[in-house]
Each structure stands twice: as structure tokens, then as C-alpha cells.
Amino acid sequence: MFTLMNSEIDLEGLLSFIYESFIKNDKIVPDEVLRFVNDSLLAEDIVRSYKNLTSETNYIKKGNFIVVSGIDKSGKETQAISGKGCVKPLKQFLTEKGYNVLTILQPSYETRLGGLIKHYLTENKKTIKLAWMLWSLDRAQHKQKVIEWLAGEKNVVLAKRWSESNVVYHAAKGINAEEILNFEKNVPKQDLTLVIDIKPETSVKRNPEPDTYENLNLLKLVWENYMKLNYFYPYGDKIYIEGEADPCTVNNTLLSITNDYLELMT
Predict the structure, then answer these.
(1) Is residue 7 pLDDT above 90, yes or no?
(2) Tens of pLDDT along 205-235?
(3) 40: phi > 0 → left, psi -120 to 50 → alpha, else beta; which?
(4) Which of 76, 112, 159, 177 is the most exposed place for a label (fewest CB within 10 A)?
(5) Exposed/middle/buried for 143, CB within 10 Å: 0-12, 13-18, 19+?
(6) Coil vs helix vs strand at 212
(7) Which domains are present in the chain?
(8) What is the rounded distance in angstroms from the CA atom of residue 261 to the CA atom of residue 266?
(9) DSSP-based three-state secondary structure for 237
(10) CB–CB of 158/66 below 8 Å?
């Protein structure tokens, strides 16, 4: 896993600079970013993701884009990608059905940009109003690969969380959802969001080491936003899956729903 332990980072300054550049429709270059981070590779990644966020891309879409979402500890990664015991991960199920699957974890902590999020959640000592941009930059680094993958008819992009998560979490922290959607307007949108629905109290019980976003009061607001996801994120279809049941039951429901959805799409 990538770490930023030895890097000096001015996150607030960096995000303010990027935000102002976006508002002014200005380009940015690595030398400018190096004023805020002392890592040239990270600076290059930030510039590349910013370019993805600000560049409109027309593309032919033949494949399907599926996102498994929900509040923390709802079982997203287990159900979608890793599996455990009786749980057959959706990735395996789709592969057995003959699909080529590209999986994406959000946040992508193994990358330099995902490492910025980890740094903010665990090491940063103050709240930054523009912190939501970190999640956008992380997501944007996957843009080109997603576009290329969706060009194939038997291809599926399967993501644990996507833009919808950024919107509902940060709307719960008082950020205007439209501002986030505008910043991510050039990021590909999913066809289907599968929301694994658990109560905030369940999330807290399942989480012995919460980060700064995983507290009960915030999760209650996030959960309420997920229940109104069409309002906050009007892209693609949404299907809610009861997540309080045992993992095998949740898994059977998730796989069945996905299978039915894909059959309707062909």
C-alpha cells in the first residue's frame, strides 16, 4: 500500500489552488503543485487527474458500469470483489457469466492520490472545507481506463463506490451536491448502483477502528442521503438491497438482481 508518511503536504493550500484554477478554467502544471507537495510523482498524478476532470471526452459505450455502494461497513467490498465463506463476489459471478470485469476500489488507497485521502482521514488534524476534492481527484485517475473498458460489449466495470458516495457523504457535511457534480461532470457515470442498506448503528457496531468520517451522527445524515440518492445523484438506475440480513442472503439477492438487470440490458 502506498504511504505518504515521509511527505510534506499542504492539503488546504493545494485544494484551494486547484479549486481556484477550476473556477477560472486554468490549466495547472507539476511545478505549481510542488508548492504544496514535495513529491514530484504525486504532483504529476494530481495534474493528470485534474486534466481528466476538466477535459470533456466523447466515447462509445457498449459495456456496463455497475457500482456497489452504501455506508461504511455495509459489506460492499466483500459482496463485490473479495468474497468470504458463502459469499460469492459479484466479480466472480460476472466472470463465470462470460464478462470481462474491471474492478475499482474507491478510495484507491494503494495509489498516491488515494494516499492523500488516507492522510486526510487519519493524520490531518483539522477539517478542510474542500476535502471532497480529494475523492474526485482519486476517481479521475481511473477515467481513461474506465472509458476504454466500456468500449467492449462483454465488459463490465465494477466499482466499490463511485461519485455517488462523494456526493452523499459530503452533502452530509454541508457541501453543495451540485458543486461536487459539476467538478466531476466529465467522469463516466454508472448504469446501475446497488446500495447495500444497513442502519448507521449497525455500521458503528461493525467498526472497531473508525476514521473521522465514520461517526454515528455523520452516518445518520449520510444514510438519509442514500435514501434520497436519486435527488443527490440523478445518474443511472438504483436498487436497494437489505443489508441487515446474513451475508449469504444479501449475496443471493445481489447476484440475482445483477443477473436480471444484465439480461434486461441485452
Answers:
(1) no
(2) 999 999 989 999 999 999 999 999 999 999 9
(3) alpha
(4) 177
(5) buried
(6) coil
(7) 11-265 (3.40.50.300)
(8) 9
(9) strand
(10) yes
Q: Fill in the amino acid letter for 113.
A: L
CA atoms within 13 A on the CB side of 41: 9
User: Could you tell me the pTM of the whole model?
Assistant: 0.95
Rounded to a whole number of angstroms, the distance between the first and last alpha carbons of the chain is 38
Which residue type sits at 9? I
Which residue blocks in 1-55 are alpha helix, DSSP H? 11-23, 30-33, 40-54
- Three cell numbers written together for 208: 472497531
Tell me if the bond preceding 107 is cis, omega within 30° of 0: yes
Cell, residue 139: 476517481
- Residues 14-35 as b/e (b if ≥16 CB within 10 A, e otherwise) read bbbbbeeebeeeeebebebbee
Look up residue 266 and give its three cell numbers: 441485452
